[in-house]
């Protein structure tokens, strides 16, 4: 066999071999890229799931805190109502005008106790009217 003929035969073989190798390399690269993409998408999916789980946990914690706070506020409200009820029961002094129990510091005029300035004025008018009626009634 001549050298030229060998070159043609083996040269073409080596070219086809190199082409095959190149194809297999490109396939491997393509496959590895596809694997990386798949694993990345799996990772991103798992990250999303983890984030969703964390978000749900935070929401549950917020709900627990809000529920506890609402329960505490309710207890405080009930306690205040009970204190007011006890104060009403314990209050012996009553307003001389409207007859409501006096819980806070009362207004005074003469020997009378009142719950508000409006009651002071209203009772003053009543007393003045009574006094005037007595004067007119006894004079005739």
What would you say this structure looks like, in words?
The structure is a single chain. The protein has 140 residues and is mostly helical. The N and C termini lie far apart (166 Å). Helices cover 79% and strands 4% of the residues. It is rod-shaped. The model has no long low-confidence stretch (mean pLDDT 83). The protein is built from 2 helices and 2 strands; from the N terminus they run H-E-E-H.
Shape label: rod-shaped
Helical content stands at over 70%
Distance between the termini: 166 Å
> How many extended strands?
2
**Poorly predicted tracts of residues:** none
Which class of secondary structure composition applies to the elements? mainly alpha
Mean pLDDT: 83
Strand order of the largest sheet: 1-2
- Number of H- or I-type helical stretches: 2
Tell me the Rg in angstroms.
Answer: 49 Å
For the biggest sheet, the summary is: 2 strands, antiparallel
Content of β-strand: under 5%
| SSE run | HEEH
Task: Quickly list its features.
rod-shaped, mainly alpha, 2 strands, 79% helix, 140 residues, two-stranded antiparallel sheet
Layout of helices and strands:
Elements: H1 3-90, E1 107-109, E2 112-114, H2 117-139
Antiparallel strand pairs: 1-2
What's a quick, concise take on this entry?
With 140 residues, the chain is mainly alpha-helical. Helices cover 79% and strands 4% of the residues.
């Amino acid at each position: 066999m001549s050298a030229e003929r060998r070159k043609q035969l083996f040269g073409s073989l080596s070219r086809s071999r190199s082409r095959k190798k190149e194809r297999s390399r490109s396939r491997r690269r393509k496959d590895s890229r596809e694997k990386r993409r798949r694993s990345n998408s799996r990772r991103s999916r798992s990250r999303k799931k983890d984030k969703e789980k964390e978000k749900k946990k935070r929401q549950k914690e917020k709900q627990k805190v809000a529920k506890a706070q609402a329960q505490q506020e309710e207890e405080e409200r009930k306690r205040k109502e009970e204190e007011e009820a006890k104060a009403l029961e314990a209050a012996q002094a009553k307003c001389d005008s409207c007859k409501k129990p006096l819980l806070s510091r009362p207004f005074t005029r003469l020997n009378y106790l009142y719950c508000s300035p409006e009651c002071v004025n209203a009772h003053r008018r009543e007393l003045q009217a009574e006094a005037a009626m007595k004067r007119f009634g006894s004079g005739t």
